[in-house]
Batch of 2 targets.
Target 1
Amino acid sequence: MEDSSTSTTFIPILEQMSLADATARLVDLPDGTRAWLVSDYDEVRAVLTDPRFSADDQLPGYPRMLPAPPAPGAMSFLRMDAPRHGAVRRVLTPSFTMRRIERMRPGIREATRRLIEGMREAGPPADLIARLALPLPSLVICQLLGVPYEDHEVFQENSRLMLSIDSTPEQATAALMALGDYIRTLALKRRTDPADDLLSTAVQQQEAADMTDEEVVAMARLLLLAGHETTANQLGLSVLTLFEHPDQLRALREDPSLVKSAVEELLRYHSIVRTALARVAVADVPLPGGQTVRAGEGVVLGVKRANRDERFLTSPGDLDIRREVRGHVAFGYGMHQCIGQTLARLELQIALTELLRAFPDLRPACPPQDIRVRHTAVVLGLESLPVAW
Ligand code: HEM
């Protein structure tokens, strides 16, 4: 998988960023404004833990990566600062503990096996993205939230439109509204007829957390978006990357107990959240490297570069599924660190294990140059990944 693009838009800049030089610098954003690109490992963590950097995308200077102006509250607590952020996030934390997520293991395994059987029955070549990488996280988040999976086309298409740099502002706004309408109807039902799902929990705790109806809708929309786009992309890229590193693929096949460290290393190696991690300074803040971000200036975090920082780990450009990588920032850092990370890890571990077990000879079904990378999305991923066995 190579990026032959010579465009000077922001995403290729992030992709081609020199690993040797991580000095914070001002870069051009797609809308013509400028923001700091911070990609040194220590500086990324410093920004993500400093309350003088806000996650509120309604503040002037917040880096705009998508065509549609951000709708107020659209991204729920992801775009809130303390103390409100904590109050809203706490509604969800009991549902994402290790113990609660571990209870989902048999269900996730069963769903994975069913999808893999579907793939086998359809026969090779099969598109791994359409057959497994996208439906698996979608099924899981739907079950967790209490959203009927039969409606997946509604939210998959609308999430894609919301998160794509190729959408027109009108398309992105319409998608946001459509997703909101869909969830609002479901939330209304849960109010009178609660079930054992996250949407019911949110509705029940709405008053205690002092949340408006619209905040409940935004929370569910965030989970729906974050719960399937990210994991789906990471799974597709992980399989492709293993194809590109046959020695690593062989090692994982021979010793499936390596799957935990393999998933962690693949998360670090790709760091798929490329342009979505951003902040705006609410005061002048000197960075550890010496540059000063002025109040009102935006910051985009170069997570991939940070995760390949020599000072963070040795041989950062190598993929080594045996290394015990700790402290990478692929799930962010600080108070907004991904609430779904335990779930994402579990899904990725199960999917890789089951896939390699079911198809001992799994291989790409097209030349690498034919595999299309989704460069236009704020989260890196693949359009499709044809495989054979
Ligand atoms: C490979 C998969 C995933 C990756 C790489 C990923 C990455 C991230 C990152 C980098 C952040 C921090 C954003 C920021 O600080 O601005 C984040 C936050 C978040 N993620 Fe994930 N995520 C993944 C899977 C999931 C899943 C499966 C869910 C839900 C089930 C989820 C739900 C969330 C939510 C709700 C937040 C906001 C947390 C907050 O603001 O307190 N993510 N994720």
Note: The pocket of protoporphyrin IX containing FE is lined by residues 55, 77-78, 89, 141, 222-223, 226-227, 230-231, 234, 272-273, 277, 330-332, 336, 338-340, 343-344 (CB under 6 Å).
Target 2
Amino acid sequence: MSLVRKDGYDFAFNPKGCETCEGNCCIGESGNIWVNKQEIENLKNHLNISLEELSKSYIEKRGYRYSIKERKLAEDNFACIFFDLEKKQCGIYEARPTQCRTFPFWDYFKKNKEEVIKECPAIKEF
Ligand code: SF4
């Protein structure tokens, strides 16, 4: 796979970098993994479970939005509930939400490039 670039970002993403990464974008400090109505529907279908089951085990309300739950691994270290800790990869890859699909091209990283460089071995600086 070739280098992924996006207008407005002075870094690129090399998908091959994921092979050597232990899931830094799915593990770390606690954060929000937002899912919208359509993504909740996709998740429900992907997992073949009811909305009640999904709400009980995998997502939670944060303010007026919904986030995928996290699992606490250690003090200040959390993993997305869907991250497969043995295989070191997303357990719902085809149904992952937009937030995960668009990483590392988040507005936040336009001004905080150092943070994503530290976290993600797949980033290539121009
Ligand atoms: S849904 Fe998948 S890609 Fe997104 S944070 Fe969870 S494990 Fe990572």
Note: The helical segments are 37-47, 51-57, 98-101, 107-111, 113-119.
